[in-house]
């Protein structure tokens, strides 16, 4: 027999097509052919026909026409002999491909019941002719010529069956649908077999075409048909359709069997209707049918999916009582569900129960247990199970190792994870994409990008191709560390390798670009994403909303927010809060209310949650009047404010110093039945402490326990900070010692508050002890070092401060610009300008950009030491770095120019700062007037004095005295008297001061009070 394969299937639409006669008319072209046919036919009547033909000259007379004619002429001969002749002929003349001949053979074989050889003939036909319609037409013509009376010939059923068995489902359905055109009806067995295979392979569209044609052809359904149709309805998501067909069975006197009930029970369980499934099981029992193992396992799985594990256990017990022995399949859903719930103990109890009942624990069970144990962080127990697996002959697979590796990573035990990965390869267990994905994800999470790239190369060398999930992890990791060009390169590499980046890949890059404020590049990615047919999701829009809000471009933030709503994407409360907060911060209350109205109208969040976001945004930005108005509107609508709304309002009021109103609101929420939480009390305690009412804060703190709350670390940190700021450091330490007794761990916030209090009170020894404790406990941060360094500097212990700065690098704690600026500022005050300059250069060498405060400290230091050249050079450097001068920087540079006699440049800088809207400090005014007086421009100085007073600014008494005494020396007493009048009118002095007192004051003038003024502004 032939061993046939089909090389190139011709996929046709499964629709009926006109069947054309594939047979060509038979013409006996010569008498010689006729004679050969008659001679061969005569020999075929003998049992030893092969011997006779081989012994004659018949092989020389064979050709396609002769063979075809012999087959047609001898249709009544034994079909198997006719087939043998055909095969023998091919050994003489070569392969013979004629659809008519094969059709005659298959029809005769099927009609005689020779199904096995007919199957091989059909397989050959399918392998040669691409069109199922040609084959069907040819067989149909032969069948009619055979003059068969059966309306349901087996040959057509067999043709459908062979297409189905070979996996050519479209062609099988084409033949099925084409039978109507050739006026033949398939058997019910054939219909059921085709329906079953289409269902098994999930070809639902083809399934319904076949079933609809069955109804058209009035083919009666049996229990197997109904069972398949019910299953199809469930698979298509139509529970009602499945129920309807089940009821039709009874109406058509077709009794459901166990299979039908199992299909119903399985479908109902998959739809989450487990109680109905149980009712179906009870119904089958009432009708005398006995549920089988599949019935009970299905119900157990259904209950487990619904997390009704006790009910699942009851089904298992019932199963045992009925004499059905549960197997691994029955127990595994329970183990899996208990593991997913985190109830590892119960999962192990079920495992032990399986062993007790003699059920061998399989690899699937072990993997399920391991997965749960690893997720629970019980890695010692996981290792025990792993060793047990090996002892019991269960060879760990890639899933086993992957679960363990992921578990070790989750517990930050990277050494064990990589050790296990090496062990996996030594045991010849090939890591899968999932294994590599777990490792690469962990390395990227720890920002070990070079190692992650090395694992990518390794997996590729093993023939594994990274998928979009792995690439997304890499893109996200590169973007998070600011390697945006590399992230973009990975995206391009994906496309080159034929992997289409999904929305998550683009999101990772867009979020990274937005975080770095590279909005133009982010928009380019956005456009590219849309061009690829990818729809942005809420995270895509959220990145732009956040970025534009941070940049203060609320118009663009609104644009993306509105576009997101147009896409019918649901905004989460975080994005809404960002938008509202941005508008409130910019003072755009109308836009904030507009966004609020849109969210309310669309019902994206609950009404209370929507109000909560707006109230929080207004409260955070000090818009308490508007926040309270919205709160009243909420209450007027009959909505009940939740604790988050009250907390937002209480926090906002406390920040504005209106603690009494905040306490009143707290009392109101209690009366209205909204229970405060610990956050409420933390906010109130903080508000009272900041208002200086530490005693009242202490009483509230001690009363928390009576209200059913336990103070947490935030409560203690707030109270400790309050004590420290009020000078009660001893009380703060007492609370620190109380925390472990109350079971509240002290965190870095608590220690930092205490450290700050000790430093501000000058208790440096206590601060140093506390700081050492922080280092040991791992609580010391950059902020802690900054506090300690500032405390030492303020006590002129600059050498110790320098040592502490050096210690930071040893402790792997990075100093920031505040650290350096603090030390630089105090070295400048001590006139240690060389050290200040060294630190200034050092901070830039570690990629820290000096702030305006850093520059003003140095400017003041150089000015104080008389190094005016450095003042000018430093000021120019500051401008070159794009740092805008503030009023202190302007004061120093103006003062320097004044002292150098560059009055014109000083006045130019004065005009520049006023143009920028920067108010002049008293020191700046004094410096300019003293410079004018030095140039004996007393009238000009008086004019400037008037401008200063009218602008609401002040100058020192000594400066006014300089103008008056200068005018007096010039003999201009009227103008000197005017100085006194202006001082009184501006409220700088009382009218009891006389002109002589003002002029006399000039004798005691020190050079200027500018240094003191600056020191106050820098402190």
Automatic annotation (TrEMBL):
Xref: Gene3D superfamilies: Tetratricopeptide repeat domain (1.25.40.10)
Alphabetized InterPro entries for the sequence: PPR_rpt (IPR002885), TPR-like_helical_dom_sf (IPR011990)
PROSITE patterns, per the entry: PPR (PS51375)
Keywords (A to Z) from UniProt: Repeat
Keyword Kinase found: no
PPR repeats: from-to residues: 222-256, 257-291, 292-326, 327-361, 362-396, 397-431, 432-466, 467-501, 502-536, 537-571, 572-606, 607-641, 642-676, 677-711, 712-746, 747-781, 782-815, 816-850, 851-885, 886-920, 956-990
Pfam families: PPR (PF01535), PPR_1 (PF12854), PPR_2 (PF13041)
A GO MF term: mRNA binding
Superkingdom of this protein's organism: Eukaryota
TM regions (residue ranges): none
Record-stated family: Belongs to the PPR family. P subfamily.
Stored NCBIfam families: PPR (TIGR00756)
Stated name of the protein: Tetratricopeptide-like helical domain containing protein
Species whose genome carries this gene: Parasponia andersonii (Sponia andersonii)
């Amino acid at each position: 027999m032939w061993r046939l394969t089909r090389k190139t299937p011709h996929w046709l639409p499964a629709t009926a097509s006109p069947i054309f006669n594939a047979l060509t008319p038979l013409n006996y072209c010569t008498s010689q052919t006729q004679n050969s046919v008659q001679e061969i036919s005569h020999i075929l009547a003998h049992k030893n026909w092969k011997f006779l033909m081989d012994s004659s000259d018949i092989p020389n007379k064979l050709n396609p026409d002769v063979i075809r004619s012999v087959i047609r002429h001898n249709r009544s001969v034994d079909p198997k002999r006719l087939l043998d002749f055909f095969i023998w002929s091919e050994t003489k003349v070569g392969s013979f491909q004629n659809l008519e001949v094969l059709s005659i053979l298959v029809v005769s074989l099927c009609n005689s019941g020779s199904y096995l050889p007919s199957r091989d003939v059909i397989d050959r036909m399918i392998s040669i002719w691409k069109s199922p319609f040609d084959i069907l037409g040819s067989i149909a013509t032969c069948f009619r010529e055979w003059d068969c009376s059966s309306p349901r010939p087996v040959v057509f059923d067999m043709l459908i069956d062979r297409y189905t068995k070979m996996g050519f489902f479209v062609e099988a359905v084409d033949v099925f649908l084409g039978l109507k055109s050739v006026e033949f009806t398939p058997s019910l067995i054939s219909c059921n077999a085709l329906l079953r295979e289409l269902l098994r392979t999930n070809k639902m569209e083809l399934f319904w075409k076949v079933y609809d044609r069955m109804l058209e052809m009035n083919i009666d359904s049996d229990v197997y048909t109904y069972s398949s149709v019910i299953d199809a309805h469930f698979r298509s998501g139509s529970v009602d359709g499945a129920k309807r067909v089940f009821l039709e069975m009874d109406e058509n006197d077709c009794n459901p069997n166990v299979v039908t009930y199992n299909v119903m029970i399985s479908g109902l369980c998959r739809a989450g209707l487990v109680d109905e499934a149980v009712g179906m099981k009870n119904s089958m029992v009432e009708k005398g049918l006995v549920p089988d193992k599949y019935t009970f396992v299905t119900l157990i799985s259904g209950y487990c999916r619904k997390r009704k594990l006790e009910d699942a256990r009851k089904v298992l017990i019932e199963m045992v009582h009925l004499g059905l022995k549960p197997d691994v399949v029955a127990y595994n859903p329970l183990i899996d569900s208990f593991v997913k719930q985190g109830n590892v103990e119960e999962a192990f109890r079920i495992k032990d129960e399986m062993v007790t009942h003699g059920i061998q624990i399989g690899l699937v069970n072990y993997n399920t247990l391991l997965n749960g144990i690893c997720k629970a962080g019980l890695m010692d127990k996981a290792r025990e199970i792993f060793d047990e697996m090996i002892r019991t002959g269960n060879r760990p697979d890639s899933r086993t190792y992957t679960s363990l590796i992921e578990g070790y990573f989750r517990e930050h035990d990277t050494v064990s994870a990589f050790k296990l990965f090496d062990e996996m390869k030594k045991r010849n267990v090939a890591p899968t994409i999932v294994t590599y994905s777990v490792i690469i994800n962990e390395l990227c999470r720890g920002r070990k990008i070079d190692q992650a790239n090395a694992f990518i190369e390794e997996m590729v060398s093993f023939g594994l191709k990274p998928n979009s999930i792995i690439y997304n992890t890499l893109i996200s990791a590169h973007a998070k560390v600011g390697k945006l060009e590399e992230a973009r390169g990975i995206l391009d590499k994906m496309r080159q390798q034929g992997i289409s980046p999904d929305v998550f890949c683009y999101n990772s890059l867009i979020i990274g670009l937005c975080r770095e404020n590279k909005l133009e590049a982010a928009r380019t990615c956005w456009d590219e994403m849309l061009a690829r047919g990818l729809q942005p999701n809420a995270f895509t829009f959220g990145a732009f909303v956040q970025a534009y809000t941070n940049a203060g471009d609320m118009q663009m933030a609104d644009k993306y927010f509105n576009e997101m709503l147009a896409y019918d994407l649901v905004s989460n409360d975080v994005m809404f809060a960002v938008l509202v907060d941005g508008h409130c911060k910019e003072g755009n209350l109308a836009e904030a209310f507009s966004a609020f109205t849109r969210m309310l109208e669309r019902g994206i969040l609950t009404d209370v949650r929507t109000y909560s976001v707006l109230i929080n945004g207004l409260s955070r930005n000090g818009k308490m009047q508007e926040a309270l108005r919205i709160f009243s509107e909420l209450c007027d609508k009959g909505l009940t404010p939740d604790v988050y709304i009250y907390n937002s309002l209480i926090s906002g009021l406390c920040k504005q110093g209106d603690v009494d109103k905040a306490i009143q609101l707290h009392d109101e929420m209690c009366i209205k039945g909204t229970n405060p939480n610990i956050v409420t009390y933390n906010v109130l305690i903080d508000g009272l402490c900041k208002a200086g009412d530490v005693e009242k804060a202490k009483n509230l703190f001690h009363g928390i326990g009576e209200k059913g709350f336990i103070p947490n670390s935030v409560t203690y940190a707030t109270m400790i900070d309050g004590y420290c700021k009020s000078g009660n450091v001893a009380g703060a330490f007492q609370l620190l010692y109380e925390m472990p007794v109350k079971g509240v761990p002290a965190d870095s916030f608590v220690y930092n508050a205490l450290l700050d209090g000790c430093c501000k009170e000058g208790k440096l020894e206590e601060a140093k002890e506390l700081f050492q404790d922080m280092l040991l406990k791992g609580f010391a941060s950059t902020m802690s070092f900054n506090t300690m360094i500032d405390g030492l500097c303020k006590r002129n212990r600059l050498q110790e401060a320098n040592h502490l700065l050096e210690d930071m690098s040893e402790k792997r704690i990075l100093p920031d610009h505040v650290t350096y600026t603090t030390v630089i500022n105090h070295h400048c005050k001590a006139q240690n300008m060389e050290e200040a300059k060294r630190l200034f250069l050092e901070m830039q060498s570690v990629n820290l950009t000096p702030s305006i405060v850093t520059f003003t400290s140095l400017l003041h230091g150089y000015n104080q030491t008389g190094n005016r050249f450095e003042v000018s050079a430093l000021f120019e450097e500051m401008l070159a770095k794009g740092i805008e001068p503030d009023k202190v920087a302007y004061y120093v540079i103006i003062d320097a120019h004044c002292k150098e006699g560059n009055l014109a440049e000083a006045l130019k800088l004065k005009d520049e700062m006023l143009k920028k809207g920067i108010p002049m400090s008293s020191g700046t005014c004094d410096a300019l007037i003293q410079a004018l007086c030095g140039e004996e421009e007393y009238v000009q100085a008086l004019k400037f004095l008037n401008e200063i007073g009218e602008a609401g600014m002040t100058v020192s008494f000594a400066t006014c005295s300089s103008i008056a005494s200068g005018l007096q020396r010039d003999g201009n007493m009227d103008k000197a008297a005017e100085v006194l009048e202006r001082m009184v009118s501006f409220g700088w002095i009382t009218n009891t001061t006389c002109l002589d007192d003002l002029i006399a004051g000039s004798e005691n003038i020190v050079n200027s009070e500018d240094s003191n003024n600056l020191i106050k502004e820098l402190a």
